[in-house]
Amino acid sequence: IFFGFLNMFFSLKLNKFKNLRHSFFSRKNGVSKGYYKSLNCGLGSRDNKEDVLKNLELVSKKINCEKKSLITLNQTHSNKVVHFKNKSDVKNKLVGDAIVCEVKNIGISILAADCAPILFYDPKKKIIGCAHAGWKGALRGIIKETVKKFNELNSNNNDLIAVIGPCISKKNYEVKKDFFIEFTNIDKNYENFFERVNDQKYFFDLRGFINNEISNLNIKNVENIDMDTFSDREYFYSYRRSSLNREKDYGRCISVILMT
Questions:
Q1: By C-alpha distance, which of 242, 249, 248, 232 is closest to 24?
Q2: Which residues are 176's β-sheet partners?
Q3: pLDDT reported for residue 1
Q4: Strands 194-196 and 161-164
């Protein structure tokens, strides 16, 4: 269960903590135009850079942090985790697909357009994290690596909360046979996350796969913001929808978590 407010979506589990601010932002209430309408936060897109920077400023105001303290990554679908232990470690646009952060008043964030943003929090150790999990990153172990970094900081998985944000749903995620083979070659049990359409096509359950990865790490405290980025055009950007519509590019939604 989750709730939305002003086109921002919140986790009920994370909302209980007074020292946390977070949101899975929708695409609404920004200044971008055209394909990117309106809160496109992806500097990697071909959108007008000034508009994207203005959108990021709007996000930092909403989440109540300084503009320079809203941190995004240069995401590459890897399993690389960035760690901010103290203020001097904090840099914007580092290459990686997850952040684990022990520093207060730093808004760490993930950009996505069908991939799943995941927010983490350990209330005992006061550590936050965020991860970008598309099929590549999830298969390469981005979730495992993020949790491993928490564990290196003496965080116990029993204390860890994981919230999986909006992403593409199974019914809209059609993939080819080679994609299916890539997964099942790694683990036969991954077959469970596919539904066969015909000899060459399958539907893939990204959210199911991510939940399974989290469950395998013995994290019990899990919440899903169960919204479909592909079909919910009004609220979300979708790489796949834009491709099918032959649009030249697509925007990215941002998800942010911050400790005070």
A1: 232
A2: 201
A3: 42
A4: unpaired
C-beta neighbour count of 126 within 10 angstroms? 14
Say how far apart CA 156 and CA 218 lie, in whole Å.
10
Global pTM? 0.97
Structure tokens at 150: 């928490």
Q: 34-69: per-residue pLDDT in tens? A: 999 999 999 999 999 999 999 999 999 999 999 999
Q: What is the CA radius of gyration of the chain?
A: 17
Q: Which of 258, 167, 159, 153 is nearest to 217 (CA)?
A: 159
Order of all β-strands in the sheet with 107-112: 2-5, 8-11, 20-25, 253-259, 107-112, 70-71
Q: Which long-range contacts (CB under 8 A, 24 or more apart) does 208-214 make?
A: 208/170, 209/135, 209/138, 210/116, 210/118, 210/133, 210/138, 210/143, 210/164, 210/167, 211/164, 213/138, 213/143, 213/144, 214/143, 214/162, 214/164
C-alpha distance across the termini of the chain, in Å: 25
